[in-house]
Amino acid sequence: MNSTSQPSKPQMREWPSWVKGSIPNPLDIFAPPQNLVQPILPGWVLGSMINVTEQNSSAPDTERDIVSVHSYGRQLGRVVDALAAVIAELPTVNRDLKVFEELMKLRREIDAIKLRAAATRLDHIVADLTTLKEAKPEEYERLAAKLREALNGL
Fold first, then answer.
1. 87-106 residue pLDDT tens
2. Coil, strand or helix: which one is 115?
3. What is the domain range of residue 151?
4. Residue 93, SS3 per DSSP
5. Which H helix or E strand runs over 106?
6. In a domain? residue 72
7. How many structural domains comprise the chain?
8. What CA–CA distance (Å, rounded) separates 33 from 59?
């Protein structure tokens, strides 16, 4: 190499045409994103949600206050229970109407779901008691005595 010569630059390869057209700078695929906002589960509703607004209620604040004390499920359950009592008083011929049969079927299915949920909660209590028995035997004994007392009263 003489004093006038310069080191040669490495020869750059040409990017394929499909890369040139799709990305302004092909190396940008390694750059951090400019916008880090990303919706999580777009269009999904998590949990039970009933949207009460001025468009579908004349008093949404009142409905919110009522539901904070008595859920829609509790309100509907009481209506179904009352209807079941009325149906039970009907002559047998009227009790056999399809609409009443469907309502009573709905009631039985809801009752079965409630029983399964209660059993699941009790299974969790048993698991918690087992854990407590191993970790804190004295606390377990205290709670087990309270449970025995409560169960004897049933």
1. 999 888 888 889 999 999 99
2. helix
3. 107-154
4. helix
5. helix 98-135
6. yes
7. 2
8. 45
Q: Single out the residue of 68, 108, 54 nearest to residue 84, CA to CA.
A: 108
Residue 10 in any domain: the answer is no
Amino acid making up residue 43: G
84 and 114 share a domain?
no
Tell me the CA distances in angstroms from 2 to 6, 7, 9, 10, 44, one per residue in order: 8, 10, 16, 19, 70
| pLDDT single digits (tens) 53-75 | 788 888 888 888 888 899 888 99
- pTM for this prediction: 0.56
In the block, residue with structure tokens 């499909």: 18
- Count of Cβ atoms closer than 10 Å to residue 132 Cβ: 17
Is 20 inside a domain boundary? Answer: no
Examine residue 66 and state whether it is found in any structural domain, yes or no: yes
